[in-house]
Write a structure and sequence with these properties.
Length: 202
Amino acid sequence: MKVVGEFAWLLEFGDADERQANERARGVAALLYGLRPEGLVEAVPAARSLFVQGTPRFDAGLLLGLETNPRASEGGPRREHEIPVAADGEDLAEVCGALGLSPTDFWKTVLGGSYVVGFLGFSPGFAYLYGLPRRLQRPRRPKPRVSVPAGSLAMAGPYVGIYPAAMPGGWNLIGSASAVLFDPRKSPPTLFEPGDVVRFVG
């Protein structure tokens, strides 16, 4: 456990598998929210860590041992989302060619899977989704685009994601999604939260 600011701590999870590390980070976050300790402001999971922000009333002793506790696993309610998508990504043909798959077979596999929101980052509402089969994974593009259209369904490494707004990006564009991922007028403002399950429907 590291002190990273005034009443702020970072817990790091050393699992060899990133998805397992992220699951434990989400599990500890759910545990903390379930305990509702006085002074807890937020617990934010990332790929291999958990950021905890508190107030002077928060007892940091609650965090001791959570990084190595084998019982720290995913918990809390899991919301499910079905997101309509279209197979119209600019990089779809290139990705399928590199994988040796037809677009039909590739898309069938994508639609047949379920994905878990590991963490949010990069841009408000951008969720990193785990669940892409290893045989479909491709690296980021060598040169990012200056602008990726809002709603683009994309993949890079082990992740699938949807761009919530038009912005620069270097992921492979495989389709488009019709969903509002970020609305600052709502509470919470993001459609996805860590631990949510996402399925794509065509």
